[in-house]
Amino acid sequence: MPLPTHLRTFIIGSSDVSAQISTRCHYNANVPEYSSKPFVWFRTNTDNEELTLDGTGGLHEAYVDLECVANTETAAQATADAVKARLHGHRGTVGSVTAKGVFVSDKDDDYLPYMAEANEGAHIVSYTVRMWYTT
Prior knowledge:
This protein is an alpha+beta fold.
């Protein structure tokens, strides 16, 4: 299975996150305007396998854009806090991949959310997730 499948399962595997969004964690898809909120949307920005000079690989560095979308700022922030607590600093199993380190950081002020057009009036908290993992 690819990284997004593992990451989605890992995110909603937290009782704190699932209490906020249930299983509404969407990967790289346009979420319908009528979708229940709050939800999490994410996409893989980059996923590169690092190689040594002799061609040995296996260590990946991935960047993921992640958005927590809700009807209120309070709900969006609560979802974002639960997601960040689940991911930030994690080392260990994420599905069948091994995370060497997962780091969550806020998007900069000029970030334009991908889900903004489909969710006018929604509140969005966005993160960049940097993940080092092996397969």
